[in-house]
Amino acid sequence: MLLRQVEYARPETVDEAVRLLASRDDARALAGGQSLINVMKTRVASPELVVDLNRIGEMRGIAVGADGSLAVGAMATYADVIASPEVRSRRPILAEVAATIADVQVRNRGTIGGNLCVSDPTNHLPPVALAQGWSMTIRALASERTVGAEEFFQGVYVTAVAPGELLTRVTVPALRAREGDGWAALTLGRDGTGIVNVAATVFEGQARIAIGCVAAVPVVLTATADEVSVRQAVRRAALDPPSDVHASGEYRRHVAEVLAARAVARALERAEG
Amino acid sequence: MSETHAVTERADELQIGYAGTSVPRKEDRRLVRGEGTFADDVKRHGMGYVHFVRSPYAHARIVSVDVSAAEALEGVYGTLTPAEVEELTDPFFELTTPPGSRIRDYALAVGKVRHVGEPVVAVVAETRELARDAADLVEIEYEPLPVLVDARRAQDEDAPILHEDAGTNVVWSGVFDWGDVDGALKAADRVVKIRELHFDRFSSTPLECSVALVEYDRGTEQFTIHANHQMPGVAAIWMGPALRVPLDRLRFVSQDIGGGFGNKITTHTYLTACCLLARKLRRPIQWTEWRTDQHSANAHGNERWFSDIEVAVMNDGTMLGFKVTALDDCGAFPRYEPLGCIIWAQVTPGLYRWRNIRVDFTQVVTNKSPVAPNRGYSRMQQLWLTERIVDIVAHELGLDPVEVRKRNYVRADEMPYTTPNGCVYDSGDYARCLDMALELIDYERVKEQRGERDGKLVGIGIGSTLDSGTNNFGQSTLLNPELQFSGNNEVATIKLDIFGEIVLTLGTVPQGQGHETTAAMVAADILGCSPDDVHVRAGHDSYWNSHAGFSGTYASQFAVSGLEAVKGATEKLALEIRRLAAAVLGAASPDEIVLEGKQARLKDNPEAALPFMACGAIVNANNAVLPPDARDITLNCRFVYVPPFELPDKERKYGNLTLTYATQIHACVVEIDRDTGEVEIVDYAAVDDCGVRIHPQIVEGQVHGATAHGLGAALHETFAYDEDGQLLTANFYEYHVPHALDMPPIRTGYIESPSPFSSLGTKGMGEGGGAAIHAVCAAIQDALRSAGIGSVVSDSHNPAERVWRLITNPEESSALVEVVST
Amino acid sequence: MAEPVSEQMIRVTINGEVYEREVEARRLLVHFLRDVLDLTGTHVGCDTGNCGACTVLLDGRSVKSCMVLAIQADGAQVTTVEGLAADGELTPLQRAFSRFHALQCGYCTPGMLISATYLLEQNPHPTEEEIRRGIQGNICRCTGYVNIVEAIKAAAEGQV
Predict the structure, then answer these.
(1) Number of domains comprising chain C
(2) What tens digit of pLDDT does each residue of B305-334 get?
(3) Complex ipTM above 0.95?
């Protein structure tokens, strides 16, 4: 519950932030703090320096691109996303899923960037990012690059953001005609930690499915958007989910199949509706 | 949402006045402003913060302890090691018989650690953070030992032995045999055999963790312990001999406590360590337990296995009796145990009339957190057993569980009812409460929906329980004839001060049950004033000398023992006021004086009145005006309530173990997702009967809270261990408790069957009997059976995966049950 | 504050009053409130940010103060339970909590009141589901939330 000694810096620009993150071996970005501070309480990870991103205005904000895509600042909070008229009208599933993350207090602080960069297998946004094909913009000291979701998530707590780098923005593609999103989750209590979660996007009858909580990073599959095909695709993926106190691997494997079918059915409904 | 279905059933019209009304709570004024004083709010100049270094192993020998690096850290005031504890204290008193009594239990782990989280070293520093930093510098070398986590293996020949001094893992073992079970099994039409049932490990996890701030006065050798302990008298009984100090040297002080539910009764180990540190380091010592500490090292509820159950039933559903082997897992140290080995006997037959019951009961230690008397203590487990038996019997025989209950319930006209082991159920109407619960969930309509529809399995379950209140501690002698405990007591003191202020002091230690308010109401009704006129001191303080050996708030007794003490003290005061007024006003007898509006006046002459202020002034400052025969009046009255218990019969294990029995009948409607096993409670009703309700809103609040605890245990909460004895649910992230969205709508109803054994007609009811657990288990089984799935719910804890397995693999659980025709 | 510091003088406005104190970077806001400023109304109930007993308003938004470093609150406005009753006059929510018996032990109450206050500021007429969602981040082990929901409803409907 009590943190180790740490140094703290609070930059006001992305450039300053990246300089600070690159200045130490063990510097961590402090976004919403809803994950990092808890980790620091356990002393499992005790960074030397935390770089508080909460004053960097250029990392907040949600804008609409010319192609209708959403440019979401990495420091946009879940609350920002839920309240955003742009999100609600253009890619509503993002607001709907964000609204099921934990509780009001967590949503007031927790950020899109934080959720993605933590890359915890039970997090909500990685499956959504993969199903929808988000791209992540990463700033380093002397460069900036954009990485697709599939390349972004690399392992448990590991992403394409290297030490000394900073995720500044994510791009959510615009919904096309005959495209719809769906989500299904089994959680520990209402709005609790995910036991299995599935994001699906259906376009012209074809589903892109991302299953969370079953592997180090979400498992991505494609299938025709009908229940039989989806279930077959999940079975063929031969998932080998972990067993823990909340669920066995066997149960997770079964539930993944059930929820994938449900998520696709919901996505299909929106695609056709 | 809650709808209260008000059916008033009082045997006689009791008080007019405040009793029965829901006055605003006195406690609220400070609590809604954040001005309560909880133990962690108390500060002392120069205090040192304690951090306990705890065992990472479930079972290990302590090879060496080195605190030198920790002590060298700047800001560290000192440490406490097992060697010091072993030298300076004696082991805590054990309640059980030999060889279990030879268990040595100290404030820190001496020689061995026996559960993950067991405190080994204490470090004290200037700030919380520094104490935590210093803890990382303590070097402890362990030699891991084999781990015992399954109680069913505790008596195996090759089982690791936790306590070498005892030489066995058995804490207590005995047989309870009443009536003629073998005869009943022969006389039965059928015998229903149930191989094994499991009541899971969980606890009420109060939001406020345990805290202590201990001061030591060197001049008077007085310890002042600011701690949120629920039963300070019992803590003192453990701590005094251990610390080798007289009990009065241990002053316990508390004001507001953030929930107890039995989890703040066995923290004397930590308090003792803090006392030693306060004395050693010459400064006040502050300890706050973290959530992870509470989950791993203080305290769990009793986990219990029921096996080889045989139930004698007739074809029409009449149940004649049963036998069972019960195995209780009390974790690494008994402490308050083995009382759990007898307390269940307060409700041996549950709500049912069977007369032939045999229980083979054994309690063992395992390498898990020690247990404490968690809400519903030990009775909840027994009631769950009887309710499971009823539902399994009903389903196996193709009978309606509602009808089987009604056929077998003790009837209202049989009250007071003496159970096979001599307990007396004071009053109640179980069938009536059941009907009310069914009406509240619209049973006649909902029962048509049982079974499978649209991928959901719908079922209805009943949980019927009793909350036995006000213990006869003589039941401990049925476990250990050497113990010198019996009866019970509670104290209250009330005085009229010099300016006419009425000041009431309780002996109880409330943790949210509204004692200040309810006590004030009872006193107000006797003194003819308003509860606002009665100042009730908040909390508990041993120095008030308003407590006795068993004082505290536990075991569902306040409404009886606490209020009887208040009533007794106030009646004494009322008589003294009337005697005083009679003397001053020239009345022939106190009977001519009435108390009204804070005045004592002549019945027949309202003008002739003595204000309470005048009474107080005369006695405290002007007593020469009193005639000699009135000079014994002090207007400062202390009353000790002693319930009318007798010593139980040790031979037959027979006798009245509890004074009152409140009834809880819950009904639950579930919808189960067939594909995932997720259980949704779509309707829920709780009907209770706790006799006369002094403050109905407070009573109903307890019903809500007990229901939430039960639902949590039924669907979400479990203290699960891996095979290395690591606790997997050690915080609120992993151990999920109900949040607001998890709670179903709850409809409540009540009747009032006054207790003939309490002068106010009240019954203790704070614990509830875990009825929600029983109702949910019953509903799940009903949903499955109604859909043609022959599963048996055999565990009290049913998260989604377990229910999914019941759906997809009914053979596994149905194999637990066998019906034999005789 | 672009250069790293391990401690810093911070200036925080709490319940309208300005406090200036030196804090270690590692100190949690909840401990700063309780241990340094003696504002003990805000409570600690867990160690993983789940229970909400530590909930305060930070620049007008409800947050769990056990997941904010005190140093992050430099320059910010904080409202704790002690700041709800202006001039000693209880708010409708505080009155409703008492009237409807929405508190037993009172330990979750400060955080619960802050969350409820924030809820009604954002949504003056919430449905029951919205109320439950609004207090989802606040654990209560005494009341089962039944009366808490009733109290918030009543306050929203102007019944207290």
Answers:
(1) 2
(2) 999 999 999 999 999 999 999 999 999 999
(3) yes
